[in-house]
Amino acid sequence: MTEPIRYIEPTQSSGMKLVRRNMTGSIFMLNLLSFRKVANYTSHPELAPEQPISGAEAFQRYIQHTLPFLQESGGEIIFMGEGGEYLIGPEAEQWDLVMLIRQSSLESFMAFSNHASYLKGIGHRTAAIEDSRLLPLSELPKF
Questions:
Q1: Which pTM was predicted?
Q2: What is the pLDDT of residues 34-64, one digit of tens each?
């Protein structure tokens, strides 16, 4: 039996496709997140707590670290809520947390995501996440 594919970080190809979309104005990032039962700090042992914590707790540490950098770059959390199973969608797929992040522009998102001080805490996210989806959205004009 093969392991399911997990999506934790963007690829170089997906990053290039985002830039090529040439999105203007505010952009929104729809995050679907599934947490590990126990956070895995193997890739970032310098951030590991003394005692094991859950993926949800590690993600809370990521949010606390990240929020100042997000706000400094002109971004904000629009919505954060508990996920669950789909009403319409794959029955085997469910998400623990759903977030909608607004960023003032694609440029500000790119500056935020490459900020050296922000990146020092990204290991909390990596330790927390079992699987994720991140969908960049642009707002349509009202009709």
A1: 0.91
A2: 999 999 999 999 999 999 999 999 999 999 9
Report d(CA 55, CA 39) in Å as an integer.
Answer: 4
Name residue 122's amino acid: I
CATH number at 131 reads: 3.30.70.100
Q: Are 36 and 55 in contact (CB under 8 A)?
A: yes
* Alpha carbon separation from 29 to 4, 26, 57 (Å, rounded): 24, 10, 22
**Total structural domains in the chain?**
1
Phi, psi of 38 (to 5 degrees): -125, 125
- 15 backbone dihedrals φ, ψ, rounded to 5°: -65, -45
